[in-house]
C-alpha cells in the first residue's frame, strides 16, 4: 500500500508528451506572456523600440517553461496545466487588446 | 541542497540525450566561433597582398565620390567609404557588383577606387578572399549546406541545437545542485578516469554558465527572430505598428550629385557620437526613395550592436539622423536593454583582451561537448569481468565514439588545411573561395569516413596527428615563403602574421601531446574500452 502511494508520487518521465507540451504549449504560453507585457507592461503597446525587447523575451521565457515542464508529475498533467495556462494568458491578452484604445 | 532522486534521474536522462543530440553541432559552432575572434589576423595571414590603391585625405574624397557615382551605376546602389586609418584597407571606396539576399556569393567581384597623383580616377576589380566570412558561416550554420526559404537551413538546425543546449544547461545545473559545494573546485585525478572527466566537465560548465546561457538564448533568437516577429505581428500587435512610422518617402528620385560633402557628414556624425572613431560610411540606395547612410562607429569601451561597431543612420542628402537606436547612450531604454545581448554574443567590447577571453570561452565550450560525449561513452562501457573474455562494446557506443572523433577533429583539420591551402593554391586556382570550401568539406568528410573505418581508438590518434601536421604547416609555410622568395608567395604584415604562426605552432605541440597520450591509452589502457584497439 505504502509502495503504491510512493509510486504514484514519483514523476513519470513521459518524454514524448512532455516534450510536445514544452515545445508547442510552452512557446504559445511564452508568446502570450510577452504579448501581455507588450500591451500591459511599462510604456504600453506603442512605446518606441519596445517590440525588439518583447521579441527577445520570447526565447528565455519559453526555455524556462520548457525546462520546468519535465518537473510536472506526468505528461497528461503537463499538457493540462500548460493548456490551462495558455487559455488564461490568451484570454488576458485579448482582453487587453480589446480594451486598449489605439492612440 | 537536497533534490528528490526521481527528479535527478529524470534530468540526468534529459541532460544525456539533449547533449548527445546537440553536442557535435555545438562543438563545430563553438570551435569556429572561437576562430572568428581572430578574424583579422587570419585574414591577413591567408589573403594575398592587395595592391592597395592610394589612401586619400578627406578633402579629396568628394571628388572621388563624384567621379565614381557619375560613372558607376552599381556604386549608386551601394558603396562603402573607408575612413579608418588602417593599413589593410584596400582603397578609400569599394563596392560589389552583385548583392542579393543574405547568402554569400563565392564569385562576387569587388571594385576598388581611388584617385592617382594627378587626381584622376583609378579603379580595379578583384575577387576578395572570403576565408573569414566562410569560417563565420561555418560558425552560424555548422557547415550544413542548403537553404530554407531565404535563410540557410543550417541556421535553423543550429537554432534547434540552441534549444537543446539550453535544456542541457538547465538540467546540468539541477544535477549539480545537490553536490555543488562539495564538487565545485574538485578535480580528482585518481585512478578513476571517469571522475576526472566529470569533474572537468562540471568545473567548466558551472564557471562559464552565464556565458553559455547567454549564447544559447541568443542563438535561438538569431535563428528564429523572423518566426518570433511574425507571431508577434499576428497574435499580439495586430493593427498596431511594430516598428513605428517609417520615414516619409522622398517626393522624387534624388540627384546623386547633391549628396552632402563627406566632411560635413563626418562633422554631423562626430557631433552625435563624439567619443567614437568613424570607421566606414556605407551609402545605400542613393537613387532610391529611402537613401541611407550608415556610419560604423568604433569604441571598445561600449557595448555595441554590430559585430564590431555601433551604427548611426543618416540621410545622406540632408544630414538628418534617421535612426540612432544602435548608438550607445542614444535611443531609448528598450534598445539599451537589447543591445548588450548582441555585444555579449559577439564579444565586440573590450578590445583584444575580451577577444582573447571569448576565444578561451569558445574553446572551453567545445571541450564541454567533447567531454560530455566521452562521459556518455564511459557510462555505457561494458566492463571486463575477471576470467572472462574481453566484452564486445555495443554498436551504439562504437558509432558514437567514431562520430565524435571524426566530426570534432575533422572540423579542426578542415579549417586548418583551408587556411594553408589558401596560400598555396591562390595562384593556381581560379576562384580561391571555392577552393576553401572544397578543401574544408573534403577533409571533414574524409575524417569522418576514416573514423568509422578505423574505429574510434586508432582514428583518434591518427586524426590528432593529422591536426598536428596541419597546424605545423602554418608556420612552416611562412618560413618557406621567407626563405625561398622564388615561390612567389607572400608574408603579410609581420606582427599579425607572426601571432598566427606562433599560435599554430603551440596548437601543433598540443595536438602532438594529445596524440601521444591517446596512443598510450589505446595500446596500454583497459582493453574493455571503446578506445582500445
Explain what the structure shows:
The complex is a heterodimer of chains A (103) and B (533). With 103 residues, chain A is mainly alpha-helical. Chain A contains 4 helices and no strands. Chain A has helices spanning 2-9, 15-40, 50-69, 75-99. In chain A, helix 2 (15-40) packs antiparallel against helix 3 (50-69) and helix 2 (15-40) runs parallel beside helix 4 (75-99). The longest helix of chain A is centred in the N-terminal third of the chain and has 26 residues, at 15-40. Chain A is elongated. Chain A starts with a helix and ends with a helix. Chain B is an alpha+beta fold and 533 residues long. Chain B contains 16 helices and 10 strands. Chain B has helices spanning 5-36, 39-46, 58-71, 73-77, 131-141, 153-176, 180-183, 193-207, 209-237, 262-272, 333-346, 351-379, 395-425, 432-454, 456-483, 494-524; strands at residues 78-82, 93-96, 110-115, 121-126, 147-148, 151-152, 277-284, 292-298, 310-314, 321-323. In chain B, strand 5 and strand 6 form a beta hairpin. In chain B, helix 12 runs antiparallel to helix 13 (395-425). Chain B is globular. The two termini of chain B are 43 Å apart. The chains are: A mainly alpha (103), B alpha+beta (533). The interface between A and B is large, with 34 and 39 residues.
Number of helices of chain B: 16
Compute the separation of the termini of chain B in Å: 43 Å
Strand arrangement across the biggest beta sheet of chain B: 4-3-2-1-7-8-9-10
Q: Output the radius of gyration of chain B.
A: 26 Å
Which runs of chain B of at least 5 residues are low in confidence (pLDDT < 50)? none
How helix-rich are the residues of chain A, as a percent range?
over 70%
Which stretches of chain A of 5+ consecutive residues score pLDDT under 50? Answer: none
Taken in chain order, the helices and strands of chain A follow as: HHHH
Largest sheet of chain A: none
- The dominant shape of chain B is globular
Structural class of chain A: mainly alpha
How far apart are the termini of chain A? 64 Å
Q: In total, how many beta strands of chain B?
A: 10
The helix fraction of chain B, in percent, is: 55-70%
**Largest sheet composition of chain B:** 8 strands, antiparallel
Overall residue-averaged pLDDT value of chain B? 86
Amino acid at each position: 500500500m505504502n509502495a503504491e502511494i510512493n509510486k504514484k508520487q514519483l514523476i513519470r518521465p513521459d518524454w514524448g508528451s512532455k516534450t510536445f507540451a514544452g515545445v508547442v504549449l510552452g512557446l504559445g504560453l511564452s508568446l502570450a506572456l510577452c504579448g501581455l507585457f507588450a500591451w500591459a507592461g511599462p510604456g504600453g503597446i506603442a512605446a518606441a523600440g519596445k517590440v525588439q525587447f518583447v521579441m527577445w523575451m520570447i526565447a528565455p521565457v519559453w526555455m524556462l517553461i520548457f525546462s520546468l515542464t519535465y518537473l510536472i508529475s506526468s505528461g497528461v498533467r503537463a499538457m493540462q496545466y500548460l493548456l490551462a495556462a495558455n487559455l488564461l494568458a490568451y484570454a488576458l491578452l485579448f482582453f487587453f487588446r480589446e480594451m486598449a484604445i489605439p492612440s | 541542497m537536497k533534490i528528490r532522486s526521481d527528479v535527478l534521474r529524470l534530468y540526468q536522462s534529459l541532460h544525456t540525450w539533449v547533449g548527445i543530440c546537440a553536442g557535435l553541432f555545438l562543438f563545430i559552432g563553438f570551435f569556429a566561433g572561437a576562430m572568428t575572434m581572430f578574424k583579422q589576423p587570419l585574414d591577413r595571414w591567408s589573403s594575398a597582398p592587395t595592391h592597395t590603391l592610394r589612401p586619400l585625405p578627406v578633402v579629396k574624397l568628394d571628388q572621388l565620390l563624384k567621379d565614381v557615382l557619375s560613372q558607376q551605376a552599381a556604386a549608386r546602389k551601394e558603396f562603402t567609404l573607408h575612413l579608418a586609418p588602417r593599413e589593410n584597407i584596400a582603397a578609400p571606396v569599394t563596392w560589389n557588383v552583385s548583392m542579393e539576399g543574405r547568402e554569400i556569393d563565392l564569385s562576387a567581384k569587388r571594385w576598388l577606387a581611388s584617385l592617382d597623383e594627378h587626381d584622376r580616377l583609378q579603379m580595379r576589380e578583384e575577387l576578395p578572399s572570403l576565408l573569414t566570412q566562410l569560417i563565420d558561416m561555418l560558425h552560424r550554420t555548422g557547415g550544413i549546406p542548403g537553404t530554407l526559404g531565404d535563410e540557410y537551413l543550417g541556421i535553423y538546425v543550429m537554432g534547434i541545437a540552441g534549444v537543446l543546449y539550453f535544456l542541457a544547461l538547465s538540467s546540468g545545473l539541477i544535477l549539480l545542485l545537490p553536490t555543488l559545494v562539495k564538487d565545485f573546485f574538485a578535480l580528482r585525478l585518481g585512478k578513476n578516469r571517469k571522475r576526472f572527466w566529470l569533474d572537468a566537465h562540471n568545473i567548466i560548465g558551472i564557471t562559464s554558465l552565464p556565458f553559455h546561457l547567454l549564447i544559447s538564448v541568443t542563438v535561438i533568437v538569431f535563428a528564429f527572430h523572423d518566426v518570433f516577429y511574425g507571431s508577434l505581428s499576428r497574435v499580439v500587435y495586430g493593427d498596431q505598428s511594430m516598428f513605428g512610422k517609417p520615414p516619409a518617402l522622398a517626393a522624387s528620385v534624388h540627384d546623386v550629385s547633391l549628396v552632402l560633402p563627406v566632411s560635413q557628414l563626418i562633422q554631423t556624425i562626430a557631433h552625435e557620437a563624439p567619443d567614437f572613431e568613424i570607421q566606414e560610411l556605407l551609402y545605400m540606395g542613393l537613387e532610391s526613395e529611402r537613401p541611407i547612410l550608415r556610419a560604423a562607429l568604433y569604441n571598445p569601451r561600449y557595448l555595441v550592436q554590430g559585430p564590431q561597431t555601433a551604427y548611426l543612420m543618416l540621410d545622406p542628402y540632408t544630414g538628418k539622423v534617421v535612426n540612432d537606436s544602435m548608438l550607445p547612450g542614444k535611443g531609448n531604454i528598450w534598445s539599451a536593454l537589447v543591445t548588450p545581448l548582441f555585444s555579449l554574443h559577439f564579444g565586440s567590447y573590450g578590445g583584444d583582451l575580451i577577444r582573447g577571453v571569448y576565444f578561451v570561452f569558445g574553446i572551453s565550450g567545445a571541450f564541454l561537448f567533447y567531454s560530455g560525449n566521452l562521459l556518455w561513452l564511459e557510462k555505457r562501457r561494458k566492463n571486463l569481468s575477471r576470467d572472462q573474455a574481453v566484452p564486445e562494446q555495443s554498436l551504439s557506443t562504437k558509432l558514437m565514439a567514431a562520430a565524435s572523433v571524426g566530426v570534432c577533429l575533422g572540423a579542426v583539420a578542415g579549417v586548418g588545411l583551408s587556411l594553408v591551402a589558401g596560400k598555396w593554391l591562390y595562384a593556381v586556382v581560379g576562384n580561391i573561395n571555392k577552393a576553401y570550401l572544397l578543401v574544408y568539406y573534403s577533409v571533414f568528410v574524409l575524417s569522418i569516413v576514416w573514423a568509422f573505418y578505423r574505429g574510434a581508438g586508432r582514428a583518434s590518434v591518427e586524426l590528432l596527428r593529422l591536426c598536428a601536421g596541419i597546424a605545423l604547416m602554418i608556420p612552416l609555410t611562412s618560413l618557406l615563403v621567407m626563405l625561398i622568395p622564388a615561390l612567389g608567395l607572400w608574408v603579410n604584415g609581420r606582427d599579425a602574421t607572426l601571432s598566427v604562426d606562433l599560435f599554430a605552432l603551440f596548437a601543433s605541440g598540443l595536438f602532438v601531446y594529445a596524440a601521444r597520450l591517446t596512443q598510450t591509452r589505446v595500446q596500454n589502457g583497459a582493453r574493455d574500452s571503446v578506445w582500445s584497439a
